[in-house]
Prior knowledge:
This protein is an alpha/beta fold. It has helices at 10-13, 50-56, 58-63, 70-85, 114-128, 134-139, 145-157, 161-173, 189-202, 205-218, and strands at 24-25, 32-39, 42-48, 99-102.
Amino acid sequence: xxxxxxxxxxxxxxxxxxxxxxxxxxxxxxxxxxxxxxxxxxxxxxxxxxxxxxxxxxxxxxxxxxxxxxxxxxxxxxxxxxxxxxxxxxxxxxxxxxxxxxxxxxxxxxxxxxxxxxxxxxxxxxxxxxxxxxxxxxxxxxxxxxxxxxxxxxxxxxxxxxxxxxxxxxxxxxxxxxxxxxxxxxxxxxxxxxxxxxxxxxxxxxxxxxxxxxxxxxxxxxxxxxxxxxxxxxxxxxxxxxxxxxxxxxxxxxx
Length: 255
């Protein structure tokens, strides 16, 4: 069996969208079409492996359970019908595969750029399928802190933290992560928060420790008494849990 194909970076290829007939191929042997909506202006179709999603993500294991939810029941019925008419599911055109819709996974008030969400979710799919190309990560300028934070967010949302944690720790050790774990004088608060957030979820204790210390020393505008919290402008890393930051909504600056 040939190895799964590397994900196609549609941003680099200049495609605004993909289609059921021309999806982004994560797995050439894929038997499922994943339709992901990032925003009203950006949607993608990914050809993926049903078994990989079930094995690597508790969210997809439950959603695609052939006995629990309508999505899983429909997918199982469609695949059963396709197996009767095709000897090899890899030969089935993508638009004939069962489809699962994932809606509105853009993040943030005005949306962290949909393209950034697309990059992070694409990275998640590559890691789940074991087809992450380190050469392409390096060529694209390493993995930025905001992509890591978004990856951590998706890993938690789709219950796939163990797989993401292992791979991100390897990427960090091998020097594929943008910047070091240790903040410098030019590190902005948002970047420190993004690395603390990713570190808490993905198990990068050095990031949590050093960036938390930097945040304590420099302080945060969110801790100022006059700071007005607007819940419509929250990003996942704006308020850090895990005992790192004071209770959400406070401005006491306690860790």
